TrEMBL record:
Belongs to the peptidase M14 family. Transmembrane segments: none annotated. It comes from Winogradskyella litoriviva. It holds the Pfam family Peptidase_M14. The lineage of its organism: Bacteria, Pseudomonadati, Bacteroidota, Flavobacteriia, Flavobacteriales. Signal peptide: none annotated. This is Peptidase M14. CDD domains: M14-like (cd06239). Residues 1-267 form the Peptidase M14 domain.
Length: 381
């Protein structure tokens, strides 16, 4: 797939009705009139009786199951899916091979209660991605029923990751990350794992053209309670997609485009036939590390450090207020952090940093700005 053509297509199909981080059933339902009614089904209900929808595209023999917002506050891939849906609906030539050779069953919001609250968990405070064995929640049962009925040949497990992740122990942010999950404790390189690795390698080759050194790979420690590990254990190649951070893109609108590209590339690789000799390239993708904070004030003095020069790290807490996700800076660490990086960095040049009340900064404090030698400094980009 040609990157320029994909970017041009994205600009033409971007679903303007979906924007920002807060995406719920209410938001996607406003887009349903963009698609043929026969594509959309209600396949179950959440704990609080919200409908769980599915979309179906294509008519080919290769069956691919995709689901998003298993964690309710991870919405970037949902936006990208609807952008893909518009391309599918128009039967754009870019996706002709996908639609001819594949049948896609897509669950855009698996956890509508968590989406409504903007939380990771469902209404019963259960992480659905740790419920693959117990199947204690209605949403887990809906996904398993879809899996059993559809009998997919491939699975795409779509998530979003925090801003803390780097691609390796570097100052390269992990804008997108992937994983071919383990299927047993030994993390055996089975055929289906190699297939998933090959698909990821091809996706990475394309992404490197636009976001070099910004793709990460998750640790493949085995947990049979996770959905991806379970489906991999069933013998179905399963790929974890994680939408991460890009400079100043807290609304995840730029990353949305990268996810759009990665989704279509992954589907296209499957539709055109997989080369089984590329799985080794997967291990060249750097493993994710936690090297980032949202903001670091370097070379600062503060009362808690006894006026010694330190670095002050802040992480944004995502809080839903009146239907809008607000980002509230919270002090995470006060120390020298030579191996950590900030998405925004401020050099205090040895000056005193205080709050507006001229009080000391403490780990856990939530503040919007600081005073640097009495000058007000915003912690936002």
């Amino acid at each position: 797939m040609n990157l320029d053509l994909l970017n041009t297509a994205f600009n033409s199909v971007r679903t303007s009705e979906l924007h920002g981080r807060y995406i719920t059933n209410f938001h996607i339902e406003k887009c349903f009139n963009l698609f043929s009614k026969f594509r959309i089904s209600t396949i179950g209900e959440s704990v609080e009786k919200r409908p769980i929808y599915s979309f179906k595209f294509g008519s080919g023999p290769i069956k691919i199951l995709l689901w998003s917002q298993m964690h309710g506050n991870e919405s970037t891939s949902t936006k990208a899916l609807f952008d893909c849906f518009k391309l599918f609906e128009a039967e754009n030539s870019l996706v002709a091979t996908i639609l001819k050779n594949c049948t896609l069953l897509v669950i855009p919001i698996l956890n509508p209660d968590g989406a409504e609250r903007y939380t990771r968990l469902n209404a019963n405070l259960i992480d659905l991605n740790r419920d693959a064995q117990n199947l204690s929640q209605p949403e887990s049962k809906v996904l398993r029923a879809a899996y059993n009925d559809f009998r997919p040949n491939y699975c795409f497990n779509l998530h979003g990751q925090r801003t803390i992740f780097s691609a390796g122990e570097t100052n390269n942010v992990a804008t997108l990350s992937f994983l071919s999950p383990a299927e047993n404790e030994e993390r055996t390189l089975t055929q289906n794992r190699k297939v998933a690795m090959t698909i990821i390698s091809d996706i990475n080759d394309l992404l490197q053209q636009e976001i070099p050194n910004a793709v990460g790979r998750y640790d493949d420690g085995f947990n049979i309670n996770c959905v991806g590990d379970t489906f991999q254990n069933f013998g179905v190649p399963t790929i974890l997609y994680e939408a991460g951070h890009y400079a100043n893109d807290y609304s995840r609108e730029i990353v949305r485009r990268f996810m759009f590209i990665a989704l279509l590339k992954g589907l296209n690789v499957i539709a055109n036939g997989i080369s089984y000799d590329k799985h080794k390239a997967y291990f060249k993708i750097p493993e994710n590390a936690k090297c980032f904070y949202d903001v670091i004030i370097r070379n600062a003095k503060c009362k808690i450090s006894d006026n010694e020069v330190v670095d002050i790290a802040f992480q944004f807490q995502e809080v839903l207020i009146d239907g809008v996700v607000d980002f509230i800076p919270k002090v995470e660490a006060i120390s020298k952090m030579n191996l950590k990086f900030g998405h925004k960095e401020i050099d205090a040049k040895g000056k005193m940093v205080t709050t507006t009340e001229n009080s000391e900064l403490n780990v856990g404090s939530e503040i919007d700005f600081v005073l640097l030698n009495k000058e007000r400094i915003s912690l936002y980009s």
